[in-house]
Amino acid sequence: MAQPWKKKTCYWMKAMLLALWFSGIHVLADAAAAVSKEQNQLRFSKEGQFKILQVADMHFGDGKSTPCQDVLPNQMRGCSDLNTSAFIHRMIQAEKPHLIVFTGDNIFGFDAKDAVASLNAAFAPALSSNIPWAAVLGNHDQESTLSREGVMKYIVGMKHSLSQLNPPGVNIIDGFGNYNLEVSGVEGSSLHNKSVLNLYFLDSGITPRFPLSLAMAGSNPLSNFGFSALLRSFGHNSVHLPLPFLMQRAYMSNPEGQKSAAPGLAYFHIPLPESASFDSSNFTGVKQEGISSASVNSGFFTTMVEAGDVKAAFTGHDHLNDFCGELLGIHLCYAGGFGYHAYGKAGWARRARVVLATLEEREKGGWGEVKSIKTWKRLDDKHLTVIDAQVLWSKTSAGKLLLKYLLGHTLALVFLACYSGEQSALEHLRSVFHIILSASVSSNCLILMDHSVVSRGNSMVF
């Protein structure tokens, strides 16, 4: 039986994501707010594309006076934070993204004498590009002259920033920088006023030991952390609600009602424990260091599986990892280290990840819903070399992929239930997969657990 404190911990990010879904409905219903933010509305280009540049772990300090780390001897002279800025400029010019996402450790607080000055310098390439951008916090952003809340508030107020402090209408939530952005269809198309791609941004906290910002709550990391009150407001059975339909109600209603939820992408700093499920046989990219995730599994990956719309989650934190691996239809992707003041590996180029979502072109002309989501990385070398291009999700393969996992990976589902450490994990799985899976799978899970074939916290590769 799960201990009460562990059971609470398992709900932290479920409550967070649930809050984002509910706040999404709130925003959709608030016409006045939608009109006032029209100038910041994200939408697909007239070519039916939406491109995101991910910048992970800039570790910006004081600019020219802050030296590079882990570069070749012939690169050391004159190498500084300015190399990081130059790399961002090159990436913007090469890729021309529609949105830039900074996934934490944007500044390295201990080496930033003035947090405001460092934030201004770190984000300067995005500001000067006039491209919308969004950011989440890492574990180092608050180590200078601003608190964690102060850093996020400052980011929210910066030019072209679409970042938000927390979901509107939710007064008690842990951390800062938990929000969602919606990407509308092509201007003038039938999906012009519908969000066809949803982006989720979450605060993964300051320490990998406890997820989110639990460690900030004092000597007892589980006291007063906010999400328990949030859960009480929704009721403990909130996780059984049809989450995709809460956020996607407008997308699936007339006119142009769609049959399924719009795809979603999640961005946060510290990776999930499930990232340790992969080896070189089942991911694209490289793994050169351990997975620095929370030691207590939050159950957030289970929540993403339940929600059904999230196709990929993008993180940083472990600078020497840049791989993408797929688990239960969701890709877990590292960006790889970007910043020159961050630790790295001499001779291993700094890099950035790009994501491209493409709409379906209809036979009679015009653009429909998202057809595919692809990704690749670029290296900060002479040619900005493109590596590891791959398809993360496509509309045509989604059904086949889901069926493959549901019918062919019973042990994987068992592992997910047990690994999450939740007493109610089995019920969550039943609520998600009841349409295709019969009671026999649940029975198998119970039998396997009774015989200790699968144990909590055990790592399995499948």
UniProtKB/TrEMBL annotation:
Keywords linked to the UniProt accession: Glycoprotein, Iron, Metal-binding, Secreted, Signal, Zinc
Essential cofactor(s): Zn(2+)
Predominant location category: secreted
Organism: Vitis vinifera
Protein name: Putative inactive purple acid phosphatase 29
CC per GO annotation: extracellular region
Signal peptide positions (record): 1-31
CDD domains given in the database record: MPP_Dcr2 (cd07383)
Family: Belongs to the metallophosphoesterase superfamily. Purple acid phosphatase family.
InterPro entries, per the entry: Calcineurin-like_PHP, Metallo-depent_PP-like, PAP14/16/28/29
